[in-house]
């Protein structure tokens, strides 16, 4: 039996806009979130300070490197104009 596509589309009932599907949180997601919170709360103030200072020092080294690299490029461009 052949059914035309138009007929199939008409037989499907349209979804109501007022119906909302609530997706339940999977146990795995809850577990991961709780474990992440435990790890974050396990840090002491000294640990957090060390992490932040280390991150800050890396950022400052990167900016120093970028500024030095910029000076080198400018010098080379002045010596060898294209």
TrEMBL record:
Q: Specify the domain of life of the species encoding this protein.
A: Eukaryota
**UniProt biased composition (Basic and acidic residues):** 1-18
Q: Where is this region: Disordered?
A: 1-39
Q: What is the protein name given in its UniProt record?
A: G-patch domain-containing protein
Q: What is the lineage of its organism?
A: Eukaryota, Viridiplantae, Streptophyta, Embryophyta, Tracheophyta
């Amino acid at each position: 039996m052949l059914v035309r596509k138009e007929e199939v589309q008409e037989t499907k009932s349209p979804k109501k806009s007022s119906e909302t599907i609530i997706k339940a949180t999977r146990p795995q997601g809850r577990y991961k979130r709780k474990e992440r919170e435990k790890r974050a709360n396990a840090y002491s103030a000294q640990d957090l300070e060390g992490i932040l200072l280390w991150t800050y020092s890396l950022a400052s080294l990167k900016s120093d490197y970028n500024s030095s690299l910029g000076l080198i490029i400018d010098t080379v461009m002045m010596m060898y104009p294209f």
